[in-house]
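Hi V.,

Quick status before I head out on leave. The structure for the redesign project is tokenized and pasted below; the design run finished overnight.
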């Protein structure tokens, strides 16, 4: 067992989750990496990593993964509730199946993930939840209707959890990024929406790197437990809205 506590991350197979696993691993933490695709996580070959095939829609799979990680490295001290998809589209022509998928992964999946670690953190009277929202959880954008709905959900739940868990010395950080360079656009199936998103992105000179987000999470986590960064809102400088 390593001396630094275990950090758990959903959506660690790609993008911001993968970059965060790397940053915490570099800082000497064992990491529990969870996602549906295990190969990319295996390929990262991080020391002291526990890799688990998890679909966040499956509450038992997450609980089992947490138990496996904790058996090897002790209690999860931070859970990055990160897994999510962005099926952006004009709401008038979007197939409802896309809403179902986003709602199940981005809202119920978030609650399943919180549930897997919250009681342990309360008992230990320490811990940190990093909740992945978005700038789309603070304001609405065209073609983001249900995605925004899921991220507003994350904001609301996080505010409530922060209030509730403060009595237990557990921190809740909300993360609200703007445009970050990841594979997130592979989830946009509507070609018109994808084209206009890319056009906007180009106007602002592209997104910023996931490693920048990861470093900010690490910095916030490394503050003393009694100090809480309540929200991180990070965008490219040239992102206007
Ligand atoms: P990526 O597409 O690169 O990563 C998404 C991650 O979520 C993958 O590891 C994927 O793994 C995982 N995931 C998706 N569905 C599930 C599921 N059902 N169960 C478990 N894991 C799942 O995109 P990002 O890194 O950008 O996205 C991470 C989070 O950041 C998302 O919540 C997204 O909404 C949010 N975000 C992203 C922004 C951006 O501009 N990139 C801006 C603001 C917020 P796998 O497919 O292997 O399961």
């Amino acid at each position: 067992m390593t001396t630094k506590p275990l950090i758990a991350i959903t959506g660690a197979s790609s993008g911001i989750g993968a970059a965060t696993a790397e940053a915490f691993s570099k800082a000497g933490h064992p990491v529990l990496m969870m996602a549906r695709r295990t190969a990319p996580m295996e390929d990262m070959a991080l020391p002291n990593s526990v890799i688990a095939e998890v679909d966040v829609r499956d509450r038992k799979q997450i609980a089992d993964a947490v138990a496996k990680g904790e058996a090897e490295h002790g209690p999860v001290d931070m859970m990055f509730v990160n897994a999510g998809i962005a099926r952006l589209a004009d709401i008038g022509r979007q197939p409802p199946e896309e809403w179902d998928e986003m709602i199940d992964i981005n809202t119920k999946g978030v609650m399943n993930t919180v549930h897997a670690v919250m009681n342990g953190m309360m008992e230990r009277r320490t811990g940190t939840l990093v909740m992945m929202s978005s700038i789309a959880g603070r304001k609405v954008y065209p073609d983001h209707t249900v995605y925004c709905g899921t991220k507003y959900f994350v904001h609301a739940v996080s505010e409530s959890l922060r209030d509730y868990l403060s009595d237990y010395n557990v921190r809740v950080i909300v993360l609200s990024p703007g445009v970050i360079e990841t594979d997130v656009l592979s989830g946009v199936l509507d070609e018109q929406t994808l084209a206009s998103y890319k056009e906007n992105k180009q106007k602002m000179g592209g997104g910023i790197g996931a490693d920048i987000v990861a470093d900010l999470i690490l910095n916030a986590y490394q503050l003393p437990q009694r100090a809480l960064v309540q929200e991180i809102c990070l965008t490219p400088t040239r992102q206007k809205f």
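Above is the designed sequence. Strands lie at 6-10, 31-35, 49-53, 76-81, 128-132, 171-177, 180-181, 208-209, 231-234.

G. will cover questions while I'm gone.

Best,
W.
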